[in-house]
Amino acid sequence: MCSCSSSNMAGLRRADMQKYGRSSFCISAVFLTLAAGLIAQTDASDVLTVTDANWTLILQGEWMIKFYAPWCPACQHLQTDWESLGRQSESLGISVGRVDVTQQPGLSGRFLVTTLPTIFHAKDGNFRKYVSSRTIEDIQAYVVQKKWAMVEPVPGWKSPSSLLMSGMANLFRLSVWIRQIHTYLTNTLGIPSWGSYVIFAIITLFMGLMLGLMLVLIADCIWPSRPKRREDKTVVIVKEEVSEEEVEDILMEEKRTSDLDNENERVSGDESTEEEGAMSDAAGSDQSPSEGAAESSVRKRKPQAQNTTEGT
User: Fold this and answer.
1) What is the C-alpha to C-alpha distance for residues 184 and 180, in angstroms, rounded to an integer?
2) CB-based burial label for 69 (10 Å; 0-12, 13-18, 19+)
3) Do the beta carbons of residue 130 and residue 78 sit within 8 Å?
4) What was the pLDDT predicted at 121?
5) C-alpha–C-alpha distance, residues 258 and 260, integer Å
6) Cα separation of 52 and 49, whole Å?
7) Catalytic residue chosen out of the listed positions 4, 26, 72, 221
8) Measured between alpha carbons, how far is 29 from 139 in angstroms, rounded to an integer?
9) Residues 132, 142: contact at Cβ < 8 Å?
10) Is the Cβ–Cβ distance between 136 and 203 less than 8 Å?
11) Other Cβ atoms closer than 10 A to 134
């Protein structure tokens, strides 16, 4: 009985020790995981993730901003030095940020990022592109020795806060959105690529027609066509603007011209009456004696005819 009980107690102790070892291992694993997460969180807090929602924070103060992509090998090589720069941001008196272009296409268009990784230095809204070596020592010297002062800032029309770059950001977002729709149509719905292109072409034509119609309506509202009545009014206004002296001069000239016209008409009328009289005299002298005799015979015959009628 004693040997059996002692063996049972030993088995139980071993089982308890195994359970205790397993539980302690799980606890330590959880503790290590939480500690690693806490450390990663503190490291990540030193480097601010810049997005479309909070990018205006970099317009104030001094910043170093990195544009990267997770699949870029050069960006992965720079990641360790960039995190080290973030931990030294307080001593350097700057803020350190990063932008994932795969998640924030609008910001890549706003800053016109064409190569990866791309680093910008920002000082009170003035942006300069960092083109030196990407080692942590050179980046620190760029900030501490103020080498950025020897670099020309980005011009105003190309600044991320300008209207042009805002439109570029929207264009990049639109391109990504179109790409997602194309992927959805071809992969999910099974539409061929040419069918997707035809759909986009039809939508583009329709949007172009609508945009043209809106532009025509806006132009008619801003610059309406002028009727003819307004032209008459402008003439009247011009006449009213003439001074009284000029009006008197114009009336005097009109009176003189009318007097001259009347005198010319009188002279022409006198000449015409003289010509008519000469023509009538010439016509009377040109009459033949036969015509005069015929007229006298007609006069003699008329009284005879009257006498015969009275006798009857």
Assistant:
1) 6
2) middle
3) no
4) 94
5) 5
6) 10
7) 72
8) 38
9) yes
10) no
11) 16
Predicted local confidence at residue 301, as pLDDT: 47
**Which parts of the chain sit beneath pLDDT 70?**
1-45, 226-245, 247, 265, 267-312
Q: Say whether the peptide bond before residue 117 is cis (omega within 30 degrees of 0).
A: yes
> Around 122, how many Cα atoms within 13 Å sit in the side-chain half-sphere?
23
* DSSP category for residue 126: E
Give the length of the chain: 312
DSSP state of 148: G
Distance CA 142, CA 121 (A): 9
- DSSP per residue, 45-64: HHEEE--TTTGGGGGSSEEE
Kindly name the residue from 2, 4, 26, 75 that is annotated as catalytic. Answer: 75
Whether the pTM exceeds 0.70: the reply is no
Question: Quick one: DSSP state of residue 223?
Answer: S
For this structure, is 221 an active site residue?
no
Per-residue model confidence as pLDDT tens digits over 254-299: 777 777 777 776 766 665 555 555 555 544 444 444 444 444 444 4
Cα 171 to the chain's mean position, in Å? 12
Residue among 25, 45, 23 at smallest CA distance from 33: 25
